[in-house]
Design goal:
Largest sheet: 3 strands, antiparallel
Order of helices and strands: HHEEEHEE
Strand order of the largest sheet: 1-2-3
Structural class: alpha+beta
Number of domains: 1
Helix content: 25-40%
Oligomer: single chain
Radius of gyration: 30 Å
């Protein structure tokens, strides 16, 4: 009986790279978890939702302002330039943000028409 056990132990060949496959799987799970954590830490979980539409403005009011628009699966990044958003205009009215977060627009001449 003892000879048979020794023979079974000696006959098994050990694969020195057998544990590497498990490390690769663990690294892939960690990478996916890290990506999901990064998206949620940016407070934008809508980026993971394929049916959600979202618009993000980076660096508002600066020369390097960008507008990122996600409609469904499509993501479009627009760099703002004078050609896209520049030009002449006139004041239409005043907008007020209330304590509740609501924004109220009041036309300048009271009627909303020029």
């Amino acid at each position: 009986m003892r000879r048979r056990r020794r023979r079974l132990i000696l006959d098994e060949e050990e694969d020195p790279l057998g544990g590497v496959a498990n490390l690769f799987d663990a690294a892939m799970v960690f990478a996916v978890a890290l990506l999901i954590a990064l998206v949620f830490s940016a407070n934008v979980p809508e980026l993971l939702n394929p049916s959600a539409d979202i618009t993000i403005v980076k660096n508002p009011g600066k020369e390097n302002m960008q507008v990122i628009i996600k409609k469904g699966q499509e993501i479009k990044v627009m760099n703002m330039t004078e050609e896209l958003a520049g030009g002449q205009g006139h004041k239409l009215g005043i907008a007020y943000r209330l304590e509740t977060g609501e924004v109220i627009y009041v036309p300048e001449n009271g009627t909303g028409r020029n």
